[in-house]
Amino acid sequence: MTGLLICAALGIEAHAIRRGLPAHLTDVRVVAIGIGPRRAARAAERLHGQRAVAVVGFGGAVAASLRPGDVLVADEIRYRGRVHPCPWAALLAEELARAGLPARVGPLLTVDHLVRGAERRRLAGQGVQAVDMESGPLARAAADRPLAALRVIVDAPRAPLLRPATLARGLAARRTLAAVGPVLVRWAAAAGPHRTIAQESVPFPLLKEPLT
Q: Which residues does the UniProt record annotate as the domain Nucleoside phosphorylase (predicted)?
């Protein structure tokens, strides 16, 4: 197997991550897969032969305690009524803390639409910390590979996405993504075969809306 595959939805996210990586690395690939679960599902075919997988980019908070600029590391990814555990989340959070990037660890939900208002509050009541649009299909395909899902928050209940300040928040989040790259490399090395942890998706009955 080769090394680490880092998947980002947007080109600007992928560019930021590449910019922060050491130039000499040959076993790390950063790819922009496009926005949404369908594109992520197509990208999941690229996981063959990869030793470790990370899904990284911007995210939206539903928990009121998260603010723009915060980093969330998923300890589980909820998608299509199932929960995909991320047993390497604590290891990644430790590596981030060592790099001066403290992170929250908690559930991430993959959706196919922008989440606002009452839906944010309902999801927060179910324990969801943040949402994205790509991690679910990749988590489903990752099988027993080390998997990380990391989101830098750009919008939150008190900082909606469609506001003038979003641009400044996005630029700040991009700088954070650049700092995350080397941390992911260290995480992937530490989460090698000798650290394999059993994982199995389980039903999540609280998620009622069908996702396409």
A: 27-155
Q: What is the domain count for the chain?
A: 1
Tell me, yes or no, whether 211 lies in a domain. Answer: no
At residue 147, does pLDDT exceed 70?
A: yes
pLDDT at 186: 94
Contact between residue 205 and residue 27 where contact means Cβ atoms under 8 Å apart: no
Residue 52 lies in a domain: yes
Q: Which domain holds residue 193?
A: 2-203
- What does pTM read for this prediction? 0.86
- Strand 147-155 and strand 28-32: the pairing is unpaired
- In a domain, residue 212? The reply is no
Residue 210 domain flag: no
Task: Give all strands (DSSP E) within 33-119, no chain letters.
Answer: 50-61, 71-79, 82-85, 104-110
Reading the block at residue 74, the tokens are: 């998923």
| Arithmetic mean of pLDDT over the chain | 85
